[in-house]
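[09:14] KT: can someone run the structure on this one? pasting the chain below
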Amino acid sequence: MRRCSPILMILVLAQGFFHTAKADDIVAPASKRFNTHETNAVPDFQKHVVPLLGRLGCNSAKCHGSFQGQGDFRLSLFGFNFQADHASLNDADRIDIDSPADSLALAKPTQQVDHEGGLRLSVDSWEYNLLHRWIAAGAKGIGNVDGNVEPQSTVTDQDRVAGVALYEKAIKPMFQDHCYECHGFGSRKGGLTLTTRDAALRGGESGPVLIAKRPDESLLMQALVHANDNLKMPPSGKLKAEQIADVREWIKLGAPWSSQFGPDAGRNARQLAALHCEPAEIVFAESGQQQIRVIAHWDDGTREDVTCLSRFQTNDDSIATVDNDGLATSSGAGDTHVVVFYDNGVTAIPVLRPYPHSASAQISSSNTDTELHPIDRMVNAKLKKLALTPSRLCTDAEFLRRVSIDMTGTLPDPVEITKFLADSSPDKRTRKIDELLERPSYAAWWANKLCDFTGCNPKSISSLIEVAREEGYIQASQWYDWINERVIRNEPYDRIVEGIMLADLSGRGEGMPTFWTRQSLKEPKDTAMSVAHAFLGIQLQCAECHKHPFDQWTQADFNDFGRFFTSVTTTKRQSRTREKTKLGLLRSQTISLEPGDDPREPVMNWMRDKKNPWFARAFVNRVWAGYFHIGIVNPPDQFTPANPPSNPALLEWLTTGFINQNFDMKWLHRQITNSAAYQRSWVPNNSNRNDRRNYSRAIPRRIPAEVMYDGMKQATASADKMQEVRNNLRRRASGHLSMRMAGTHAMKVFGKPDRSINCDCERVNEPTLLQSIFTQNDPLVRMRVADSDWVIDIEDAEAAKQQLNFDSLVEQVWLRTVARLPNSKEKQRAKQHLSSSDTIAAGISDLLWAMLNTKEFLLNH
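[09:31] RB: done, structure tokens below
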């Protein structure tokens, strides 16, 4: 037997040691460490106390997290405003360090004292022990959480707690009621804003308005007591004596600020580096259960099992449920995610359960995996996990109609359909895609979509009232034309966005300044939300008032991002920084700005960076959703950790390719439409009937409002005018006319967005009863059919005793409406109707009306 060398033995032992150390360095869960009352462990306010309050529901919107609080006790909604929460807990008798068990924070949730929220924990629970130990250890907060310019050493912990409580109770409401109209978030009269402590200490044109601990020297106090005839505030009249006394006491305490509505909420908290879950993916073979373990990784290198402090939810409880302790239970076939929340971390665990069809495991294809389109390799890999068999490819007629609508917003014309169906070459679909991408209607349709995303609304451009003025229509049309020109020449997407983001507001440059000069953007926060939605596919508005419930965003993140757009929003003439400042850019980096800098430039540079997690992905996802009616991330404008992509590998491949192709939009359209996933039939098989998110089949969806309008116009046009109707994009609802038609009855009925809110959901493609009533009875539809130039031509031919071919006429009806030839049964019934009609024109008019009301016409399938 060979002996191991000493060096080898040392290496083996060392490897075992390090492996053990790596496994053992995870701090045990709080449920174990505080399982008994006698423990030396001390809970951390951020790591343990606040998450526990969230898990117990204390800081929810239905309880103390509501904006008015409950029982004179208010916590920040979803936590993460640690200073305000600590101050609230230390107010009144909620915390009794000398006798922790007598603290209301323990007596109420255990119902030793009446509690409207009911029993939340028992006195023999680890939760009770944790809170009791925290109080007994001094009920400490997270240290210096104020983060403002006044040194914290000048304010004692006791004064800070009392001062923040007074600020929340009296000072902040006074500011909101009497000061914010002139010195709030949207106005800086005299250069002064009172929305943050550092802004108040910095002051405005008259200098600092607050001098901590020296009320008589503070301009704010002098203005409130009317010490100077030239400085009397508020303008509405002198405050009550008790209000002035509160302000004086608050300044004496150092004027501490809870930052509940300022930029510092959550800024100086410990940073959660990552939230890891075990297992990383759950695959149920059949009904069963799986326990989830959650590990918090902090920026100082420590790791802790926080399963007992985390909150859990499922995105689809018909597939999987999860209890409060992280036990996931399979409830049906399909795929979803279990979402885990802890501190500022949000992560999602994929949960899959294959469909119960043994034959579905075989994905038939004439190509090997290496010959498949990369999109299909990634889609098929997911289908294989779920035991789903994809539907066959759609027919040529279905493909031509589908791709024409999706890519150009236009129905194919009868000549084009007939020619395509007669073509037997194997590459005809690829050639048709290339042909469609060169048509002006492609640029017109996708310019219309880009106007949707960026908020081109005639009403909001030049007026604050809900009525569009002519100036608004003109500027909206210029906005559309500007984008359309760039899509025509296939300008890279990032350069189109750059032309908007860095537009010269004077209008002298080549950019599009109207995005910034819209009257609807009244405050920097409005602009920030518009930029985030338009170009990043994220919704920031929740973080305006509290920590985002489904994302990492805090108020500090929200307010910093808004400050990038202060100048451009308030002046609508320029974008220039007035003073030296540092701003956090959505947790990616800190930007240093000098006076005179355009703060939009670092935002644009960051967005187009290859490492940006949203910019390219958001556009790729929106384009995918345009072709499949569902995004890889869905809804397409809700990129959050709680709403992960259904196929991460697919989104990553498309995004990487899009960036590597220099943001070439035509490359993206070409890749998607050439895939088998896009070209699949809508007809389900036994395995994929219930699948609507994995692209195993096409999902029929109502055609967009603009296509509906243009399609009816095209279907009823005379043969010699049909190309003019199709190609005159200035008279097309999917083209230039789109700006004028927004808000009209027909467009509203069929879901065309007004572009008045930051949400892709504003465009509605779902069928409704009102739409059926419209297509059957609305005067617009009846007029289209009754005044059809094609029907009139038939009337003239009848009057001239010309021989009319019933077969040809019936085929034309089907080709004009549903883009295919009628089958023999359909043709026979149609010809019988023509024979029984008073005139051939009347019969054709009936057929046209009937076909325009079929699901086959109203849906894109």
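[09:33] KT: thanks! The CA atoms of residues 702 and 859 lie 4 Å apart.
[09:34] RB: yep, looked fine to me
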